[in-house]
Each structure stands twice: as C-alpha cells, then as structure tokens.
Amino acid sequence: MSGIPSTVHALLTGRDVLAATRAAGTLVPGRRDRPGVAAGLLAHVVVSAAWTGVLAAAARRHRLGAGGGAAAGLVIAVLDLGIAGRNYPAVRTLPRVPQILDHLVFGAVTGALLDRPQRTGQGTTWTTSPGCSEL
What we know:
This protein is mainly α. Helices cover 66% and strands 3% of the residues. 30% of the residues are buried.
C-alpha cells in the first residue's frame, strides 16, 4: 500500500510507474549506476523490513497507531530520501512529494498494524502496547 501515492502520481503525470523501483535498485551494492526492477524489489524489501523492525521496537515501548506511524514515516522519509537522494542520482531525480507520501503511508499502515491486538493459539490476545502484554 505504501507505493500507492507515487504510483498514482506517475499514472496521472505520465511518468514511469516503475521509476522508484528501479531507483531503489541502485541502492544494492554494485548497482549504483545500473537501476533495475529486480534489484529494486530486493532493496525495497530489505529497507522496508529494516524500518519495520525499528518501528516494532519503538512500538514495544510506546503505542504508535496510524498517527505516530505516519510521523515516524516522515522521519524515515527525511533519512531515506535525504541520504539516498544525496548519494544516489536515480533516487535524487524522483519527484519528492510522492516519495514522502509513500513513506507517510508506510509509517501509518505499519504503526496501525503494530498497534492491533494479535490472536494467540489459546484464544487470547496480545498487543505491543505498553501495559497490555498479559495473556
């Protein structure tokens, strides 16, 4: 879901819908000047998994919810796009606003999902929220 804003933007403006995926491919070591869809998918999975881990660790201490997740997504956008945009030309050329919106959606969805109670095998629930870890 987090790629919806940039995909919609690309469709509405006639841009390449896979440009962000290809640009992410340049983050893979040895591919800085060789963007590609497969490498981009790999990079997106790795980066998303890493940030999900960071948000999950934060959610163990503080409830994120969609709003807190979106705020975290904005911070992630500043870090991801600031660092990658400075060092990777393919990322730098992407339209900035849709990329920021992708990060906001990622954070909001991840924060909301991390805040949901989870079913256990015994029919009880647990959540990552503080004070709700009892079975």
